[in-house]
Specification:
This protein has 356 residues and is of the alpha/beta class. The chain folds into 2 domains: 111 residues, NADH Oxidase; 218 residues, 3-Layer(aba) Sandwich (NADH Oxidase). The protein has 12 helices and 13 strands. The site of flavin mononucleotide (FMN) has 20 residues, from α2, β10 and β12.
């Protein structure tokens, strides 16, 4: 297998999703059929990267995308976690093996097309065939729970409304939001473009100004009901305006880095299958992440009331989804029909992801 072919595989796999488009991976080419993927996570400075789990899920999405991309060139891929590599800097050895006659994976043509849709979608229900395909895509180790009726979507809209209040009043989350949005952009190589976050242009300009400092945010939140407009546009309306919310639940509680990587593999197959079915998807990971903090008994804010709010949100989430306190949840999202988003995250150039 030549170097050009390897570069083509890596170039396509770059389109794997990652939380806030962080792309927590770099590629070291060890041979024309062997890449070391140097993963990293952002737990030290990103509130949402709880114990690096979302980054590890992104690593799984990348590994699955490498496999799918390689299938387009009659190559199987095999991966292994390099023994001794630390959880916060895991190295995955990925090898590509010739497999003459191998058919391209049916998800291949959706790798670059898959995209987040954060705006309202149509409410037409999913068909039984679509549900079935999505359940199969998640694989045998993850169950799929749909919340489709209007009543369920309304309840989740209420939950996401309160969830957004935590997000918007938490200074530790503010520091992340300030870094990850590229305001005024339609496409962003290394962040979320302002146009893709899902608010109207006037609210976007106001948010950009307010987010210039925490003092402004706190003032707006306290005296001018500053959380209302973004919560309506980013959380409440989209939660209703979709076909369903979907929860991916691992069959056994994930404990190791590899478990979260496996979950990321399932997530990517699920998301690409949704794309193949003509659906759009938006991850809704913050209620899952706040529940991780709450159930681990870990404080995440200097604002005293926030941990208590996260704990009661976790209990409501569990009641809505019929979860025990100890039940694991891997991925939560909403799904539906909509036009292609006008704005999206793109990716760093391959040359910037290659370690020389
Ligand atoms: C593990 C994980 C968690 C994510 N969480 C959220 C989320 O809570 N809300 C959201 O709008 N997007 C979320 N995303 C979507 C990313 O922001 C998105 O994949 C990334 O910016 C790249 O954009 P693209 O998927 O449109 O190519 C998440 C993605 C991953 C892989």
């Amino acid at each position: 297998m030549g170097r050009d072919l390897l570069l083509k595989i890596l170039d396509l796999a770059r389109w794997a999703p990652s939380g806030d488009n962080t792309q927590p991976w770099r590629f070291e080419i060890l041979a024309d059929d062997h890449v070391a993927v140097h993963g990293f996570d952002t737990r030290e400075h990103v509130l949402y990267d709880f114990d690096g789990r979302p980054s590890q899920m992104a690593h799984g999405a990348l590994i699955e995308t490498l496999r799918i991309a390689a299938s387009g060139f009659e190559r199987l891929s095999e991966w292994s976690l390099r023994p001794g590599s630390p959880d916060n800097a895991p190295i995955y050895d990925v090898r590509f093996l010739p497999s003459p006659g191998l058919s391209p994976d049916p998800l291949l043509s959706y790798v670059e097309k898959r995209v987040v849709q954060r705006r309202p979608m149509r409410m037409s229900p999913l068909t039984a065939e679509q549900r079935h395909a999505l359940v199969l895509a998640a694989g045998p180790d993850h169950s799929v729970q749909f919340f489709a009726g209007l009543g369920e979507r309304l309840k989740l809209a209420g939950l996401l409304w309160d969830n957004a209040y935590i997000r918007l009043t938490c200074p530790e989350a503010f520091r992340v939001h300030r870094e990850i949005i590229e305001w005024g952009a339609r496409f962003s190589e290394d962040r979320l473009p302002g146009e893709a976050i899902g608010v109207d242009p006037v609210t976007a300009r106001l948010m950009q100004w307010v987010m210039g400092s925490w003092t402004r945010v706190a003032f707006f939140n306290r005296y001018l009901m500053g959380t209302i407009a973004p919560r309506i546009q980013l959380d409440f309306i989209p939660a209703i305006a979709c076909s369903a919310h979907v929860l991916l639940r691992p069959g056994k509680t994930p404990r190791t880095l590899t478990d979260y990587v496996e979950t990321g593999i399932a997530m990517q197959r699920f998301w690409l299958t949704a794309t193949a079915l003509g659906l759009h998807l938006q991850p809704e990971m913050t209620p899952v992440i706040f529940r991780w903090y709450a159930r681990a008994g870990r404080s995440f804010s200097v604002v005293p009331k926030i941990d208590g709010r996260a704990a009661s949100l976790a209990s409501r989430f569990e009641a809505l989804a019929g979860l025990e306190r100890s039940d694991a949840v891997a991925f939560f999202c909403r799904i539906g029909y909509s036009a292609e988003p006008r704005s999206r995250s793109i990716r760093k150039k391959l040359a910037d992801l290659l370690l020389s």
